Amino acid sequence: MQFNFNYILEALIPVLRGLPVTLFVVSFSMAAAFPLGFFLALLVSKRKGAASGLGALFVSFMRGTPMIVQIYVVFFSLPGILAFLAGQLKLSINVYQINPLVYAVIVFTLNTCAVFCEIFRSALHTVGPAQMEAALSSGLTEAQGYWRVVIPQMMEAACAPLATASIELMKNSSLVFYMTVMDIMGIIKTTAAEGYNYLEGYTLAWIIYLVLCYGVEFIWFLAEKRLKSRRSRESVKNSGEREKKYA
After folding, report:
1. What CA–CA distance (Å, rounded) separates 117 from 158?
2. Assign residue 182 a region: left if phi > 0, alpha if psi is -120 to 50, beta otherwise?
């Protein structure tokens, strides 16, 4: 069997046309899951009431089932549910014409939300309740305490696992092809099938996803470095203020 390098050269440009779709699914899912995962982490951490129990059940379900199962469940069941609701509400909407990309974003957002929830819940334990008590005693509201005190410290501990989760999300984004979304993997599978260039196609996919994952890892490395630098500057500033106070 001869490796067809010409296929890779010819398919590279068409395959890269699916890059915006992949980046959109990943970036939108992360952007939506970030605040949702944080609020869900706060809810689950309280361990009080039915809402906390339902939140924990949601996280357990999303993390305990394969992504491909979640994709098929949403892709094949949600249109029927939306069609039923549209019929009950007498809305003239053809839900079967909705872009499959919408369902892909829904699945990946929900899954990422559950993953981020566990990361944030673990990172919150590294801060400790004393930080919030100090923020409240200084006159800050609870929301301000989280924004100014808890979240900056929490994010430093959460950067590494968030980077790992983001890389997993980038790799799992290749599954959107099963929802008929033509992303990078979808275009590769389609073009490779025309000339049975599967080895060359998957080699090209391996290279592209490897580059994308390294890019995601580098972005989180810069974010973690900036957070540590900011904390160091604040520590130096607070030390200087204490020295002036007791001078």
Report:
1. 11
2. beta
Q: What is the pLDDT of residue 131?
A: 80
- Which pLDDT belongs to residue 240? 52
Longest dimension (CA), the chain: 80
Domains and CATH numbers, the chain: 16-182+203-246 (1.10.3720.10)
| The pLDDT value given to residue 151 | 85
Joined tokens for residue 52? 């906390």
C-alpha span between 11 and 190 (Å, rounded):
11
Buried b (16+ CB within 10 A) or exposed e, 156-175: bbbbebbbebbbbbbebbbb
Instruction: Quick: pLDDT tens for 208-242.
Output: 999 999 999 999 999 888 887 776 666 555 555 55
Q: What is the pTM of this model?
A: 0.86
Per-residue pLDDT tens over the stretch 174-198: 999 999 899 999 999 999 988 889 9
For 35-70, write each residue's pLDDT tens digit. 999 999 989 988 778 889 899 999 999 999 999 999
One DSSP character per residue, 116-159 reads HHHHHHHHHHHH-HHHHHHHHHTT--HHHHIIIIIHHHHHHHHH
Those residues with Cβ within 8 angstroms of residue 169's Cβ, 6 or more apart along the chain or in another chain: 26, 29, 30, 108, 112, 115
d(CA 159, CA 199) in angstroms, rounded, equals 35
Q: Kindly report the number of other CB atoms within 10 A of residue 111's CB atom.
A: 22
